[in-house]
Write a structure and sequence with these properties.
Layout (H helix, E strand, L loop, with lengths): L2 H17 L6 H17 L6 H25 L14 H4 L4 H19 L4 H16 L10 H10 L1 H10 L4 H24 L1 H7 L4 H5 L3 H23 L3 H20 L5 H30 L1
Helix pairs in contact: 2-3, 2-8, 2-14, 3-5, 6-8, 7-9, 8-9, 9-12, 9-14, 12-13, 13-14
Length: 295
Protein backbone atom coordinates (compact mmCIF):
# COMPACT_ATOMS: atom_id res chain seq x y z
CA UNK A 1 0.00 0.00 0.00
CA UNK A 2 1.45 3.33 -1.06
CA UNK A 3 1.54 6.35 1.23
CA UNK A 4 -1.06 8.12 -0.89
CA UNK A 5 -3.41 5.13 -0.75
CA UNK A 6 -2.97 4.89 3.01
CA UNK A 7 -3.73 8.59 3.47
CA UNK A 8 -6.80 8.23 1.28
CA UNK A 9 -8.01 5.29 3.37
CA UNK A 10 -7.48 7.20 6.62
CA UNK A 11 -9.35 10.19 5.19
CA UNK A 12 -12.29 7.99 4.15
CA UNK A 13 -12.38 6.34 7.56
CA UNK A 14 -12.56 9.84 8.98
CA UNK A 15 -15.61 10.52 6.81
CA UNK A 16 -17.24 7.36 8.14
CA UNK A 17 -16.52 8.60 11.66
CA UNK A 18 -18.22 11.90 10.85
CA UNK A 19 -21.19 10.03 9.40
CA UNK A 20 -21.48 8.15 12.70
CA UNK A 21 -21.04 11.49 14.55
CA UNK A 22 -18.12 10.15 16.55
CA UNK A 23 -16.73 13.69 16.44
CA UNK A 24 -19.91 14.91 18.19
CA UNK A 25 -20.51 12.54 21.10
CA UNK A 26 -23.44 14.41 22.66
CA UNK A 27 -25.91 11.87 21.24
CA UNK A 28 -23.92 9.00 22.77
CA UNK A 29 -23.94 10.73 26.15
CA UNK A 30 -27.68 11.49 26.08
CA UNK A 31 -28.31 7.82 25.35
CA UNK A 32 -25.69 6.63 27.84
CA UNK A 33 -26.84 8.50 30.96
CA UNK A 34 -30.31 6.92 31.27
CA UNK A 35 -28.81 3.52 30.46
CA UNK A 36 -26.41 3.96 33.37
CA UNK A 37 -29.23 5.17 35.64
CA UNK A 38 -31.11 1.97 34.84
CA UNK A 39 -28.10 -0.35 35.23
CA UNK A 40 -27.17 1.12 38.63
CA UNK A 41 -30.73 0.95 39.98
CA UNK A 42 -31.39 -2.50 38.53
CA UNK A 43 -28.08 -3.74 39.94
CA UNK A 44 -28.56 -1.93 43.28
CA UNK A 45 -25.33 -0.02 42.75
CA UNK A 46 -23.33 -3.00 41.47
CA UNK A 47 -24.30 -3.79 37.88
CA UNK A 48 -22.90 -6.95 36.34
CA UNK A 49 -19.58 -6.17 34.65
CA UNK A 50 -20.36 -7.98 31.41
CA UNK A 51 -23.81 -6.38 31.17
CA UNK A 52 -22.22 -2.97 31.79
CA UNK A 53 -19.64 -3.51 29.04
CA UNK A 54 -22.22 -4.77 26.53
CA UNK A 55 -24.58 -1.85 27.15
CA UNK A 56 -21.89 0.84 26.97
CA UNK A 57 -20.62 -0.60 23.68
CA UNK A 58 -24.20 -1.04 22.52
CA UNK A 59 -24.98 2.62 23.17
CA UNK A 60 -22.03 3.70 21.01
CA UNK A 61 -22.85 1.27 18.20
CA UNK A 62 -26.60 1.92 18.12
CA UNK A 63 -26.24 5.68 18.28
CA UNK A 64 -23.73 5.50 15.43
CA UNK A 65 -26.11 3.31 13.41
CA UNK A 66 -28.94 5.73 14.13
CA UNK A 67 -26.89 8.65 12.81
CA UNK A 68 -26.09 6.75 9.60
CA UNK A 69 -29.71 5.84 8.88
CA UNK A 70 -30.80 9.37 9.82
CA UNK A 71 -28.45 10.87 7.24
CA UNK A 72 -29.56 8.33 4.65
CA UNK A 73 -33.16 9.37 5.23
CA UNK A 74 -32.32 13.10 5.18
CA UNK A 75 -29.72 13.14 2.43
CA UNK A 76 -31.94 15.27 0.16
CA UNK A 77 -32.84 17.71 2.95
CA UNK A 78 -29.48 18.14 4.68
CA UNK A 79 -27.82 20.22 1.90
CA UNK A 80 -30.54 22.86 2.42
CA UNK A 81 -30.16 23.14 6.21
CA UNK A 82 -27.36 25.34 7.55
CA UNK A 83 -26.53 23.01 10.47
CA UNK A 84 -26.40 19.83 8.36
CA UNK A 85 -25.05 20.88 4.96
CA UNK A 86 -21.52 19.69 5.80
CA UNK A 87 -22.51 16.10 6.61
CA UNK A 88 -20.70 13.45 4.52
CA UNK A 89 -23.75 12.28 2.55
CA UNK A 90 -24.80 15.88 1.91
CA UNK A 91 -21.32 16.68 0.63
CA UNK A 92 -21.00 13.43 -1.33
CA UNK A 93 -17.82 12.35 0.48
CA UNK A 94 -19.59 9.09 1.40
CA UNK A 95 -21.82 7.29 -1.09
CA UNK A 96 -25.24 5.86 -0.35
CA UNK A 97 -23.89 2.34 -0.91
CA UNK A 98 -21.06 2.94 1.58
CA UNK A 99 -23.52 4.31 4.14
CA UNK A 100 -25.81 1.29 3.72
CA UNK A 101 -22.90 -1.10 4.22
CA UNK A 102 -21.76 0.83 7.28
CA UNK A 103 -25.28 0.73 8.75
CA UNK A 104 -25.55 -3.01 8.12
CA UNK A 105 -22.15 -3.60 9.73
CA UNK A 106 -23.06 -1.61 12.83
CA UNK A 107 -26.36 -3.45 13.21
CA UNK A 108 -24.55 -6.78 12.94
CA UNK A 109 -22.16 -5.70 15.71
CA UNK A 110 -25.12 -4.63 17.86
CA UNK A 111 -26.83 -7.97 17.21
CA UNK A 112 -23.68 -9.83 18.18
CA UNK A 113 -23.50 -7.88 21.44
CA UNK A 114 -27.12 -8.52 22.40
CA UNK A 115 -26.79 -12.24 21.68
CA UNK A 116 -24.59 -12.45 24.80
CA UNK A 117 -27.63 -11.50 26.92
CA UNK A 118 -30.72 -13.39 28.09
CA UNK A 119 -33.77 -14.16 25.95
CA UNK A 120 -35.91 -11.30 27.29
CA UNK A 121 -33.20 -8.76 26.44
CA UNK A 122 -32.80 -10.21 22.94
CA UNK A 123 -36.55 -9.97 22.36
CA UNK A 124 -36.61 -6.34 23.48
CA UNK A 125 -33.61 -5.60 21.25
CA UNK A 126 -35.65 -6.34 18.11
CA UNK A 127 -38.11 -3.61 19.14
CA UNK A 128 -35.21 -1.25 19.81
CA UNK A 129 -33.68 -1.91 16.39
CA UNK A 130 -37.02 -1.20 14.70
CA UNK A 131 -37.40 2.08 16.60
CA UNK A 132 -33.86 3.20 15.72
CA UNK A 133 -34.28 2.38 12.03
CA UNK A 134 -37.67 4.07 11.61
CA UNK A 135 -37.23 7.22 13.73
CA UNK A 136 -35.55 9.32 10.98
CA UNK A 137 -38.67 9.09 8.79
CA UNK A 138 -41.11 10.31 11.47
CA UNK A 139 -40.61 14.02 10.77
CA UNK A 140 -42.34 13.49 7.42
CA UNK A 141 -45.51 12.00 8.91
CA UNK A 142 -46.01 13.39 12.39
CA UNK A 143 -45.51 16.61 14.32
CA UNK A 144 -44.24 14.55 17.24
CA UNK A 145 -41.00 12.95 16.01
CA UNK A 146 -39.43 13.96 19.35
CA UNK A 147 -41.90 11.64 21.11
CA UNK A 148 -40.81 8.78 18.86
CA UNK A 149 -37.17 9.60 19.57
CA UNK A 150 -37.97 9.46 23.28
CA UNK A 151 -39.41 5.98 22.90
CA UNK A 152 -36.32 4.90 20.93
CA UNK A 153 -33.85 6.40 23.43
CA UNK A 154 -35.84 5.23 26.44
CA UNK A 155 -36.05 1.65 25.22
CA UNK A 156 -32.58 1.00 26.60
CA UNK A 157 -34.03 1.27 30.12
CA UNK A 158 -36.28 -1.83 30.05
CA UNK A 159 -33.51 -3.61 28.16
CA UNK A 160 -31.05 -2.79 30.96
CA UNK A 161 -33.44 -4.09 33.60
CA UNK A 162 -34.08 -7.21 31.53
CA UNK A 163 -30.35 -7.88 31.17
CA UNK A 164 -29.58 -7.21 34.83
CA UNK A 165 -32.61 -8.83 36.50
CA UNK A 166 -34.31 -10.94 33.78
CA UNK A 167 -37.51 -9.04 34.63
CA UNK A 168 -39.37 -5.82 33.85
CA UNK A 169 -40.42 -4.31 37.19
CA UNK A 170 -42.69 -1.29 37.55
CA UNK A 171 -39.75 1.01 38.20
CA UNK A 172 -38.30 0.15 34.77
CA UNK A 173 -41.42 1.48 33.04
CA UNK A 174 -41.49 4.59 35.21
CA UNK A 175 -37.90 5.29 34.19
CA UNK A 176 -38.80 4.62 30.57
CA UNK A 177 -41.54 7.28 30.72
CA UNK A 178 -39.17 9.72 32.42
CA UNK A 179 -36.66 9.32 29.57
CA UNK A 180 -39.39 9.78 26.95
CA UNK A 181 -40.30 13.12 28.54
CA UNK A 182 -36.65 14.15 28.82
CA UNK A 183 -35.99 13.36 25.15
CA UNK A 184 -38.97 15.49 24.09
CA UNK A 185 -37.49 18.35 26.13
CA UNK A 186 -33.97 18.29 24.74
CA UNK A 187 -34.89 17.34 21.20
CA UNK A 188 -37.42 20.19 21.05
CA UNK A 189 -34.56 22.53 21.99
CA UNK A 190 -32.55 20.90 19.20
CA UNK A 191 -35.45 21.34 16.76
CA UNK A 192 -35.71 25.02 17.69
CA UNK A 193 -32.31 25.45 16.04
CA UNK A 194 -33.65 24.23 12.67
CA UNK A 195 -37.21 25.55 12.92
CA UNK A 196 -37.01 28.04 10.06
CA UNK A 197 -35.25 25.60 7.71
CA UNK A 198 -37.69 22.81 8.59
CA UNK A 199 -40.66 25.07 7.83
CA UNK A 200 -39.23 25.84 4.38
CA UNK A 201 -38.65 22.13 3.68
CA UNK A 202 -42.07 21.03 4.94
CA UNK A 203 -40.63 18.94 7.77
CA UNK A 204 -42.34 18.60 11.17
CA UNK A 205 -41.21 18.86 14.77
CA UNK A 206 -42.50 19.71 18.22
CA UNK A 207 -40.70 23.06 17.93
CA UNK A 208 -42.99 23.89 15.01
CA UNK A 209 -46.04 22.35 16.68
CA UNK A 210 -45.54 24.22 19.96
CA UNK A 211 -44.79 27.50 18.13
CA UNK A 212 -44.72 30.45 20.56
CA UNK A 213 -45.74 28.19 23.45
CA UNK A 214 -42.49 26.25 23.11
CA UNK A 215 -40.78 27.62 26.24
CA UNK A 216 -43.91 27.19 28.36
CA UNK A 217 -44.49 23.60 27.20
CA UNK A 218 -40.81 22.74 27.72
CA UNK A 219 -41.13 24.15 31.24
CA UNK A 220 -44.19 22.00 31.96
CA UNK A 221 -42.39 18.94 30.62
CA UNK A 222 -39.40 19.75 32.82
CA UNK A 223 -41.69 19.78 35.87
CA UNK A 224 -43.13 16.39 34.83
CA UNK A 225 -39.61 15.06 34.29
CA UNK A 226 -38.48 16.07 37.77
CA UNK A 227 -41.70 14.78 39.34
CA UNK A 228 -40.91 11.40 37.79
CA UNK A 229 -37.34 11.51 39.10
CA UNK A 230 -38.65 12.31 42.58
CA UNK A 231 -40.97 9.30 42.43
CA UNK A 232 -37.92 7.13 41.79
CA UNK A 233 -36.41 8.00 45.16
CA UNK A 234 -38.75 5.94 47.39
CA UNK A 235 -39.07 3.17 44.80
CA UNK A 236 -35.29 2.65 44.68
CA UNK A 237 -34.70 3.72 48.29
CA UNK A 238 -32.46 6.57 47.15
CA UNK A 239 -31.33 9.14 49.71
CA UNK A 240 -29.55 12.45 50.16
CA UNK A 241 -26.90 12.01 47.46
CA UNK A 242 -29.62 11.36 44.90
CA UNK A 243 -31.46 14.50 45.98
CA UNK A 244 -28.23 16.50 45.63
CA UNK A 245 -27.89 15.11 42.11
CA UNK A 246 -31.45 16.21 41.34
CA UNK A 247 -30.66 19.68 42.69
CA UNK A 248 -27.76 19.95 40.26
CA UNK A 249 -30.00 18.75 37.44
CA UNK A 250 -32.63 21.34 38.38
CA UNK A 251 -30.04 24.11 38.15
CA UNK A 252 -29.14 22.85 34.65
CA UNK A 253 -32.84 22.89 33.65
CA UNK A 254 -33.26 26.47 34.87
CA UNK A 255 -30.16 27.49 32.92
CA UNK A 256 -31.63 25.86 29.81
CA UNK A 257 -34.76 27.99 30.16
CA UNK A 258 -32.52 31.05 30.38
CA UNK A 259 -30.68 30.03 27.21
CA UNK A 260 -33.83 29.52 25.11
CA UNK A 261 -35.55 32.70 26.34
CA UNK A 262 -35.01 34.55 23.03
CA UNK A 263 -35.16 31.42 20.83
CA UNK A 264 -31.76 32.28 19.36
CA UNK A 265 -30.62 29.16 17.42
CA UNK A 266 -27.09 29.15 18.83
CA UNK A 267 -28.36 29.51 22.39
CA UNK A 268 -30.99 26.82 21.84
CA UNK A 269 -28.21 24.51 20.71
CA UNK A 270 -26.25 25.31 23.87
CA UNK A 271 -29.35 24.47 25.91
CA UNK A 272 -29.57 21.14 24.10
CA UNK A 273 -25.91 20.39 24.84
CA UNK A 274 -26.40 21.33 28.49
CA UNK A 275 -28.59 18.25 28.94
CA UNK A 276 -25.37 16.27 29.15
CA UNK A 277 -24.63 18.02 32.45
CA UNK A 278 -28.19 17.34 33.62
CA UNK A 279 -27.91 13.63 32.87
CA UNK A 280 -24.47 13.42 34.47
CA UNK A 281 -25.75 15.11 37.64
CA UNK A 282 -28.58 12.59 38.04
CA UNK A 283 -26.18 9.69 37.51
CA UNK A 284 -23.71 11.12 40.01
CA UNK A 285 -26.48 11.29 42.58
CA UNK A 286 -27.50 7.67 41.96
CA UNK A 287 -23.94 6.33 41.92
CA UNK A 288 -22.85 8.22 45.05
CA UNK A 289 -25.96 7.18 46.95
CA UNK A 290 -25.27 3.50 46.30
CA UNK A 291 -21.54 3.96 46.94
CA UNK A 292 -21.91 5.45 50.39
CA UNK A 293 -24.82 3.20 51.25
CA UNK A 294 -22.54 0.17 50.88
CA UNK A 295 -19.54 1.82 52.52
Amino acid sequence: MTGETFRGLVKQLGEYGKLMRLDRPIGILLLLWPTLWALWIAGEGRPDESVFAVFVLGVIVMRSAGCVVNDLADRRFDPHVKRTRDRPLALGTVSVAEALCLFAGLMLIAFGLVLTQNRLTITLAFVGAFLAATYPFMKRFTSLPQLYLGVAFGWGVPMAFAAQTAALPQIAWLMFLIIVVWAIIYDTMYAMVDREDDLKLGLRSTAILFDEADRFIIGVLQLIFFAGLMLLAPMADLGKWYWLGLAGAAIAAIYQQFLIRDRDPASCFRAFLNNNALGASVFAGIALDYLFRSA
